[in-house]
Amino acid sequence: MSNSHSPEQSGIVLDELNDSQKPFAPQHSGGCPFHGSNTKDGETPMAWWPKALNLDILHQHDKKVNPLGENFNYAEEVKKLDVEALKQDLRDLLSNSQDWWPADHGYYGGLMGRLAWHSAGSYRAADGRGGANTGNIRFAPLNSWPDNANLDKARRLLQPIKQKYGNRLSWADLIILAGTMGYEAAGLKTFGFGFGREDIWHPEKDTYWGSEKEWLAKTGTEGNRWSGDRDLQNPLAAVMMGLIYINPEGVDGNPDPLATARDMKITFKRMGVTVEETVALVAGGHTIGKQHGNGDASKVGAEPEAADIIDQGLGWKTDKASVAKITSGIEGAWTTNPNRWDNEFFKLLFKYEDKFVNVKSPAGAHQWEPSEMDIEDMPSDQNDPSIKRKITMNDGDMALIKDPEYRAISEKFLNDQAAFDDAFARAWFKLTHRDMGPKARYLGPLVPQEELIWQDPIPAVDYTLTDSEITELKEQILNSGLSIGELVATAWDSARTFRYSDYRGGANGARLRLAPQKDWIGNEPERLNKVLAIYEDIKANHAKDISIADLIVLGGTAAVEKAIKDAGLNITVPFIAGRGDATAEQTDVESFEYLKPIHDGFRNFQEAHYVPQPEELLLDRAQLMGLTAVEMTVLIGGLRVLGANHGNSKHGVFTDRVGVLSTDFFRNLVDMSNTWEPTGRNSYNINDRKTGETKFTATRVDLVFGSNSILRAYAELYAQDDSHEKFAQDFVNAWVKVMNADRFDVK
Q1: With the CA atoms of 578, 581, 586 and 591 taken in that order, what torsion angle do they form, in degrees rounded to the nearest 10?
Q2: Which of 484, 644, 691, 695 has the highest CB neighbour count under 10 A?
Q3: How far apart (Å, rounded) are the C-alpha atoms in residues 636 and 713?
Q4: How do residues 83-100 score in pLDDT, each as one tens digit?
Q5: Helix-strand-coil percent breakdown of the chain, rounded to 5?
Q6: Are the beta carbons of 120 and 435 closer than 8 angstroms?
Q7: Which residues of 124-158 are buried (b: 16+ CB within 10 A; e: fewer)?
């Protein structure tokens, strides 16, 4: 099974995706002597074994592909940026129409807003992947999604500005700032902006966007993401392959605002967007700019990734760009003045609600427009100002007045312009910054002072710990009666929630002691309460008001150090104090449910059986944690012998010295005096080859380190007689990386 997908997050499993089902596989004509490899269709040699565990997802951002080098520091470069000059350059661009791609109504604000929206809009809360934080819209598949048609033109318009400011400004930041300025220059008081998004340099090809084999595949087609009563496959958020959110023509292209409203509530929630934020974003996003469907859609050229070499990366070619732009296929502006921020969207939507009829655009798309309109409400034709046109709404727009819940919010915004302005400004800020993580990662002079709950705020601490105080605390913890396994497991559970996809979770904040984390089965509430009670007692009796977050990590640190010492080595495990304790009021319980561990191969835990194999689920978690294949290997080998398994399970504990950081896991795994016997769906016995006696038990997660050729190479290395100290040091390095992953204050 290919592991190019991400597993589910709430019990809905993904269908198995075999090699022949991969969407958009490269095609080659016959007769060419060069296919890029020795396999069919130019695929890699591993395509011969589609069920082999593919470790590529752990290395998809390899530093070798980054032309800026390992020493490049974007945070330092941003400090050199003249932000006001940059904003002025963007203002000038927005109102300076280009002959090669004319601005709608003389203003590029709508186009730039759409570029930023669609860059940020690929984010989904279930696994934190997608979004604007990496500038991934520059690469396939996102740069060629049907929903992103002609956004290649928006980025090409920004090229001179990126060229001018160079490495002081990432593409990811420029794209979002351009969209924000599109609204600000149109008259909106924006909420703020944070720099700090670093560009990637190749496609995130292992992100799962769906198993469909065609763009915009309708419900019921092979590999579709819907099942049951309109149940959307996790972790997906968009309703169709190639869309950001919903189909603007209606569900599967069939106009029905109430059905579309249902899809909107599903998909926007998957994005971490509330119902009120949804109304604000849809209305605000459609207050400036227009929709494009003024031509024959069959004559639109190929997307950028399939375009001819002479098109130089531009796609969706039409004969006359000035009059025949085609994106969604819907044609027309939403408001009277598409280059001005105002409340006309709601005013016109309600004024003509009884007159809207569904018609076809010149491109053949379903759209809504009034059967008749007052001339003063009609926008001018973008090419001939003397001609007046009717406004146009899509199915999602109509949902805002047809769905009762949406309608109530729309009426509120209709009657309160200030409330609408504020709601959109805040929702836009959230949309475009949600995947940046905590406010500590924001850079530059435009960062708002207000801290928002979706930024997962954590109080700052006002203490420091001396080396002697740290040593004393370690002794107290080790003498508390807690086992090595209990200390290590608690620290791991606190830190493992961190996701490099959107920088959420982690040990900082000690949210392990708060709802919902304190009640998660994967965190073993009974064991957790026992450990936390001891930490609370240590905190209460300490001269300084040390945080529980620091004590949790320090407990794991002390346990690992002792386990190393008991193995006959002397290695210090680095510890940096300074974590704070978040409060319940600072914790969005609903959004943290997305971080719930329903599987964790590092602790040999799986809440239920899923279609992806346990070792594939392990890869997904390791990738979200930012681990390499080597780091994953040493952590598994170390956590097993430290006795950190969930529920004190003996699976994979290939040692009789539990609590000692030995290489026993690897030595016993590769020992050819053993045989391996399946005993259940995910359980195995390791038996003595001569006597048949069962020596150990294991899961697939354990045995994959002996069966996969790459992982076995690592296991054989650490099983060597001369690798004891190397393994211990490598484990410490990986452990510290996990414990400090969310410490943006010390990076």
Answers
A1: 90
A2: 644
A3: 15
A4: 999 999 999 999 999 999
A5: 45, 5, 50
A6: yes
A7: bbbbbbbbbbbbbbbbbbbbbbbbbbbbbbbbebb
Instruction: Using DSSP bridges, classify how beta strands 356-360 and 231-232 pair: parallel, antiparallel or unpaired.
Output: unpaired
Distance between CA atoms of residues 404 and 411, nearest Å? 10
Please state, in angstroms and rounded to a whole number, the distance separating the CA atoms of residues 296 and 326: 8
Please report which helix (H) or strand (E) contains residue 555, including its range. Answer: helix 548-566
DSSP-derived letter for residue 689 is: T
Query: Are residues 598 and 9 in contact, defined by beta-carbon separation less than 8 angstroms?
Result: yes
Contacts of 337 (CB under 8 A, 6+ apart): 344, 379
The β-bridge partners of 358 are 368
- Using DSSP bridges, classify how beta strands 683-688 and 694-698 pair: parallel, antiparallel or unpaired: antiparallel
Please write down the HEC assignment for all residues of 4-62.
CCCCCCCCCCCCCCCHHHCCCCCCCCCCCCCCCCCCHHHCCHHHHCCCCCCHHHHHCCC
Domains and CATH numbers, the chain: 467-597 (1.10.520.10), 601-725 (1.10.420.10)
**Strand positions, DSSP E, 598-647:** 599-600, 605-606
Residue 579 has pLDDT above 90, yes or no: yes
In the predicted structure, residue 117 carries a pLDDT above the cut 70 = yes
For 224, the token pair is: 């579709």
DSSP-assigned beta bridge partners for residue 366: 360
How far is Cα 520 from Cα 523, in angstroms, rounded to an integer? Answer: 5
> Looking at the DSSP assignment, which residues form a beta bridge with residue 226?
232
Tokens at residue 447, please? 């960062």
- Give the pLDDT confidence of 60-86 residue by residue, as tens digits: 777 788 999 989 999 999 999 999 999
b/e 386-416 (16+ beta carbons within 10 angstroms → b): eeebbbbbbbbbbbbbbbeebbebbeebbee
pLDDT for residue 482 is more than 90? yes
Residue whose tokens read 């319940």:
584
Label each residue of 297-336 as H, E or C: HHHCCCCHHHCCHHHCCCCCCCCCCCCCCECCCCCEECCC
Please report which confidence band the pLDDT of residue 12 belongs to, taking 50, 70 and 90 as the band edges: very low
Biggest CA-to-CA distance, the chain:
94
In the chain, the percentage of residues whose pLDDT exceeds 90 is: 85
Give the span between the Cα atoms of 218 and 241, in whole angstroms.
9
pLDDT at residue 9, rounded to an integer? 37
DSSP code, position 149: T
Three-state SS at 528: helix
Average pLDDT in the 468-493 region? Answer: 98
Which of the 8 DSSP states describes residue 2?
-
Quick one: angle between helices 709-719 and 700-707, nearest 10?
90
Whether 118 sits among the annotated catalytic residues: the reply is: yes
Catalytic residue from among 118, 286, 599, 646: 118
pLDDT digits (tens, 9 = 90+) for 320-355: 654 568 999 999 999 999 999 999 999 999 999 999
Query: What distance in Å separates the CA atoms of residue 688 and residue 247, rounded to the nearest whole number?
Result: 59
The stretch 497-504 carries a mean pLDDT of 97
Q: Nearest to residue 603, comparing CAs of 568, 566, 653, 563?
A: 653
pLDDT tens per residue across span 507-530: 999 999 999 999 999 999 999 999
For residue 676, the 8-state DSSP code is: E
- pLDDT tens per residue across span 657-682: 999 999 999 999 999 999 999 999 99
Residue 35 pLDDT exceeds 70: no
**pLDDT band at residue 32 under the 50/70/90 scheme:** very low
Nearest CA to 600 out of 630, 572, 631, 622 is that of 622
Which helix (H) or strand (E) element contains residue 172? Answer: helix 171-184
* CA gap 168, 720 in Å, rounded: 47
What is the distance, to the nearest Å, from the Cα of residue 515 to the centroid of all Cα atoms in its chain? Answer: 23
